[in-house]
């Protein structure tokens, strides 16, 4: 696990991030409702830090990551970016498109599907070098040398630059995707389920590669994942999302060893153990995840919570401190409490 840099301002500071997808009906396409995919979340990412976003499918993890990079435009909120600790703060969400382009060099993404994220009609060398040409960083022999260097960095041979994606395995394609993300020397990479489509043995190789690259290039990661065992290995901090909101956030050891929110406890109870003699109490969740079009009143989790109270159905709990750099949004967890 990398060391969190707490002495300097965070690389990215997100406040009130929202992404609503409008629902329109009728011949006039009237706006009748919104899918509240991300509904006002706050988080920071430090320098050389890995923040993991976890939660069930549909909770808004991927939408949050893509909204931050403005691959999809956010509905509201702010994302304050400081390229260096001494830099003036820049609100990425307020930049016009032509100004945002220069900052895209610093903010990259590794997609989930290594089969769909590469153009089958161009060689992997061209896929990696395309961004270098677009940003005017390298051309000709310099471009070729840079592509070969990146391929070697991610564990591939330089001569594979002339091959097409179909000639590679899934793990090799994901290495190409990582090389492409590294091409512009970014400061932050969003890893959107970057290992979920890979075999377990290949997952371990890719995770170790990411950790090595983080140390070598001083990278920050937003790691979006379902596999909590992988999350514990790679993360510095974890944010747990449910129905578009963050319900608990804190250092990885506190989240895993002393979870406070009932939803976090339920997620962690589902982690399988390699030791068949080890027994842990499973916390089952009743029912399905509610619709983000009409989320429940009060705490969104109250319809499935095993310890729900009446006030949970009326009022949404504000996030409050439950430990050092550890917050939870739950009426049943008292401020300052840190019970396992």
Care to describe what's here?
The chain has about 350 residues and is an alpha/beta fold. It has helices at about 60-70, 95-105, 125-135, 140-155, 170-180, 200-215, 230-235, 250-255, 260-270, 310-315, and strands spanning about 10-25, 30-45, 50-55, 75-80, 90, 105-110, 190, 220-225, 235-240, 245-250, 320-325, 325-330. The strands form two sheets. It has an eight-stranded mixed β-sheet with strand order 6-7-8-3-9-10-12-11, sandwiched between helices. A four-stranded antiparallel β-sheet has the order 2-1-4-5. Strand 7, helix 6 (about 200-215) and strand 8 (about 220-225) form a beta-alpha-beta unit.
In short:
The protein is an alpha/beta fold and 340 residues long.
Strand content: 15-25%
Count the beta strands: 12
Global mean pLDDT: 91
In the CATH scheme, the class of the domain at 12-25 and 32-106 and 186-257 would be Alpha Beta
Give the SSE order as H and E letters.
EEEHEEHEHHHEHEHEEHHHEE
The CATH superfamily of the domain at 12-25 and 32-106 and 186-257 is known as: P-loop containing nucleotide triphosphate hydrolases
Question: How do the strands line up in the largest sheet?
Answer: 6-7-8-3-9-10-12-11
